[in-house]
Amino acid sequence: MAPLQGLTFGVELEVVAAWPRTSNPDHPIPSPLKAIYSQLTSAGVPVTLSEPGWEARAANFTHWQIKTDLIALSPAELAAFPRDSYTSESVELASRRFDFHHDDWRGELKRVLDALSQLETNTGARFFTNASTGLHVHVADHDRGLPLRTAKNLLQLATALERCLDTLHAANRIAYPRHFSSDGNSIGDFWCAPLSWFHRRNGQTPAAGSNLYDWLAAIEDQATLPALNTGICGVTDAIAEANGMFQRAPYGHNSAYNLDNLYPHFAGERYTGTLEFRQHAGTVDFLEVVQWILLTTSMVRYCAAVGPVPFPTLCAYGVDRRVGLRELLSAVQCPAETVRYFAQDDDGDEVIGFLGGGDDVSAAAPVVLEELDDLMAHNEVESSDRLVGAELRRAVIAEKDYGFDAAIKVCRPFEERIPRYYAEASLPAVVVLGERYVNVEEADSRARAGVWRRLASEYRGEVSRS
């Protein structure tokens, strides 16, 4: 496979703004979106809101965008919110398109987060995250999009090693959806459903009796990007009808991995060519955001360049619980700093997800910060449970179905079997099926599918390992 010609990405930061109401006519406070716009502009960050020409800047991804989003306060946060002196506003900060290798994206991201912190100090506002906020990263190859092979590899990697990636996330971001919305928009808790949830419900494999390798074969069977998106990250008609959904395929925003932007959905439609990672909980912690960007871009870069034998070999170890997060991060060639950051031996006890502001408030602030104490206390408790609740996360992981039986002893090493299986499943250089020639990419895909089906049969005990 050919590596990416260029690596680009964008990031979306979702936050809740507790914003002071204007009570002093001598010190008017603008809306949070306008205040953020002004602060970012002063910090030298290219940003657009509603000034002349903003549509072109937004469409070309040359500027940060500030907009509202579907973010909700929890019942406890609502009860504690000081409505008389504050308003709540949902805010999404969508970055410009960064060139991973040539832009100072770390420095610019730091300026954005520092701007939020400065606004807290200046106005008495608070920017915080909760269970409804997310940190989303869009990755692409500049404006060339991502090929089908890269997208397949990414979904296969995320399926095979989902159990490892789950250890990175808050419990509510890895749990299976409890319900769909009755209006068919699937808002509820269905905004980052794990791939394993779809594999048991998309109708591509038998609901009972299939295993992880069957799931990987089903991904390999998809012949186009639209088929990959709707075939894997979709549900059966029966499930859709039972839950009041308008269509079989949920929106890409329902999946932990959104492929909606990889292809046009109708003739002439403009699309971004990005693959979106949606599973990370909302945070404005600088190091967390940076390391998640490094991890996601490493995964895409690896999936674009890895060969047809090393990649199935890595994914085959998905059933082997002795292979963990550190091995995964090292295999996909994450930077050493990212491996150290995420693959720690303990879960830690820090709470990330909201900025701490200074105690000094300018004369323009109409209220004192103590009015937010109850709200932030509830948010901190919920954030702690969500982000560092190791026991809850382990309980969720224990309940999930990763497509394998932990009691089955894995026959190692796959390094000896995968090359042979791939060679035996490979078609000759030029093959005619019916009256159609099979190209190199299709021949490779058929060989990979053959490897997965052979491993699936072996895992079920239908054939002996040879």
UniProtKB/TrEMBL annotation:
InterPro entries named in the record: Amidoligase_2
Superkingdom of the organism of origin: Eukaryota
A matching Pfam family: Amidoligase_2
Protein name as catalogued: Uncharacterized protein
Organism expressing this protein natively: Friedmanniomyces endolithicus
